[in-house]
Please model this.
Amino acid sequence: MPDSNDTHIGARIAEQRHIAHLTQRGLADRANVSYSLLSKVESGHKPASPAVVAACARALGIESSVLVGQPYAAEQRADRFDAPLAAIRASLENWDVPLDPELPPRPLADIAADVGAIGEARRAADYFTTATKVAPVIDELIEATHQHSGGQQERAHRLLAYAYRCVHDVVYKLGHLDLGNIVLARMSYSAERSGDPYMVILTAYLRAQSSFNTGRHEVGLRLMERSLTDVEEGARRGDRSALCVQGNLRLRATMLAARSGPAGKAQEDNARAQWQEAWETAERLGGDTQNYVLSFGPSNTLIHRVSMEAELGNYGRAVKAAETMRLPAEFGRTFPDRVGHYYLDLSRAQLWTGDRQACFDSLLKARAAAPQQTRYHPHARETVEALRRADRAANGTLANFARWMGL
Model:
């Protein structure tokens, strides 16, 4: 954890490089990153992209979270996350031991309603509500898995796996990555007992997310390939759940391919091919679909086109792709987390193309859509820091935004 939240990612890269006794040229060669770009990133003249962060972290033998400064302990303490996170850690201690409490679990239909509400909070990127509500539900569902049998036991495990999915989103986004790995282990245990193959695939989908932090993108891609094979038959039949899962697997593969190495033709071709497959799946669905496992549709696929271009370093293309984006109002109400992420990626592209006002406008839109996601997103913080360094004049609005983020 850095001593100051004002330390930008480039400065942390330089610090870790010195610890590893590497020159800039040595790290650039080992990370397969342009020496000129690394020099500008370390000096703060260019913001560090997620791909550069992942490449440097892997070359240095550390996790990306070290370079981005997560978790942001002071901000989380101010936002009262300590108690909910402690309750989550406690709930993860048990997954296979019946405790026989005095009060038996409620009917699964009642617990399912609570799980649904937790899912809504997750989609809204409301990390605090999700973290506050989920621990007692996990405890109750674990007991239900022991008290039920047959189909009811499978349903309890299915609800439990989904609750773990919601927990994973919170702890991962807040930067508690080791805790996220424990959550995935618990989720895998219940998914395998849920009688639902899509829950098993969802576990692999989330597992691939951790490769963004470790830089093992090739592992994530292989996981997506294996999962795509598992869902292929259902997608061929036109099963909507299978199509939603297939589309999301392709989108995750798109981003993994985009970050998998230095921008080159093979990397770019793979990312674009994965995105095109996702688009074809979205066209088969015919519209945005809210699914019990993974929601999918044209809007999220178009959002990922902007993200893909930004990850490939094609910032002008990312901005151009956004110019034709028209997200349905209903999509924004249903998936504020996706809208918020879209504006965060767009702001990064606008910063690189030199349009600082548009960049800040996008940050404001991201905060309006998903405030907690924006406050805790490491590359949103990096973008704000870059704006502050570029704007030598006193800008009260930007300063207020930076203070809100904890910078």
